UniProtKB/TrEMBL annotation:
PANTHER family: ADP-RIBOSE PYROPHOSPHATASE YJHB-RELATED, GDP-MANNOSE MANNOSYL HYDROLASE
Domain of life: Bacteria
Signal peptide: none
Keywords from the UniProt entry: Hydrolase
Name of the molecule in the record: NUDIX domain-containing protein
Pfam families in the cross-refs: NUDIX
Residue ranges of domain Nudix hydrolase in the record: 19-151
Gene3D superfamilies: Nucleoside Triphosphate Pyrophosphohydrolase (3.90.79.10)
Cofactor: Mg(2+)
Length: 172
């Protein structure tokens, strides 16, 4: 994922200390020939498959951020159906030593138009996958999809962070 300039600027002052960041994630659905399909991207830095996710820029609303990320990363136009979960992700340590932790806003979205394509240097592949044939992915991303596919009437507030605050390692 490309690092936004505001984070690069902050890192000059705080080094590798943990940053508390806001993120957005989208489970974009469309109807396929065999049922619902989910839009996924394969990250360029780790090779992992994920829903479309991104960092919320200063002053940007979470819903605006995820619609921007969907368009930038995949060329797909989508609309938000609802916010399904607000989740405290486990702290992350990247290979360069940078530490962060995300407050993720997870949205259920509907595909409006466009065929997925790689839109920037953050991913190497993108596409729609039948919900019963998703590629291997991290448990936190699979949970995001499960929650979006079976939304409750209320927004879920949750935490993937361990009680001890141990960082998970992000590896390429």
């Amino acid at each position: 994922m490309a690092t936004p300039q505001f984070i690069v600027d902050l890192r000059r002052h705080i080094g590798h200390e943990r940053l508390w960041l806001s993120g957005s994630c989208a489970v974009v659905l469309r109807e396929g020939s065999r049922g619902p399909q989910v839009l996924l991207v394969q990250r360029a830095d780790t090779g992992a498959w994920t829903p479309v996710c991104g960092i919320i820029e200063p002053g940007e609303r979470p819903d605006q951020a995820i619609l921007r990320e969907i368009q930038e990363e995949t060329g797909v136009a989508a609309e938000i159906l609802r916010l399904v979960r607000v989740n405290v992700a486990a702290p992350i340590t990247y290979p360069n030593g940078d530490r962060c932790q995300f407050l993720d806003h997870e949205f259920l979205c509907r595909w409006v138009s466009g065929e997925p394509r790689v839109g920037d240097d953050e991913s190497t592949r993108t596409g729609f996958f039948d919900v019963d044939e998703l590629p291997e992915m991290a448990a936190r991303h699979r949970r995001c999809i499960e929650v979006a596919l079976h939304p409750s009437d209320d927004v879920i507030f949750s935490s993937d962070a361990d009680a001890d605050g141990t960082d998970r390692k992000e590896t390429p």
